[in-house]
């Protein structure tokens, strides 16, 4: 099985994304997102999409709604 699939980042790219998600920021600002994308060799759109999906996954694992609209939800 190949690490790179047509629908997602390679294993190395995921490692970079996961590191930034867990150690740097779960909600990167546009500048940080651009730097992460450059480091991983992905487009900003791909990187933003990955962070959005990963954040939803993390929220579910924490027992939170996948999208948070307000503190009172």
From TrEMBL:
Residues 1-61 form the Homeobox domain. Atypical homeodomain protein which does not bind DNA and is required to modulate cardiac growth and development. Acts via its interaction with SRF, thereby modulating the expression of SRF-dependent cardiac-specific genes and cardiac development. Prevents SRF-dependent transcription either by inhibiting SRF binding to DNA or by recruiting histone deacetylase (HDAC) proteins that prevent transcription by SRF. Overexpression causes cardiac hypertrophy. Acts as a co-chaperone for HSPA1A and HSPA1B chaperone proteins and assists in chaperone-mediated protein refolding. It comes from Mesocricetus auratus (Golden hamster). GO terms for molecular function: DNA binding; histone deacetylase regulator activity. One of its GO terms (cellular component) is nucleus. Interacts with serum response factor (SRF). Component of a large complex containing histone deacetylases such as HDAC2. Interacts with the acetylated forms of HSPA1A and HSPA1B. Interacts with HSPA8. Residues 3-62 bind DNA. Keywords: Developmental protein, DNA-binding, Homeobox, Nucleus, Repressor, Transcription, Transcription regulation. Pfam families: Homeodomain. This is Homeodomain-only protein. It is found in: Nucleus. One of its GO terms (biological process) is trophectodermal cell differentiation.
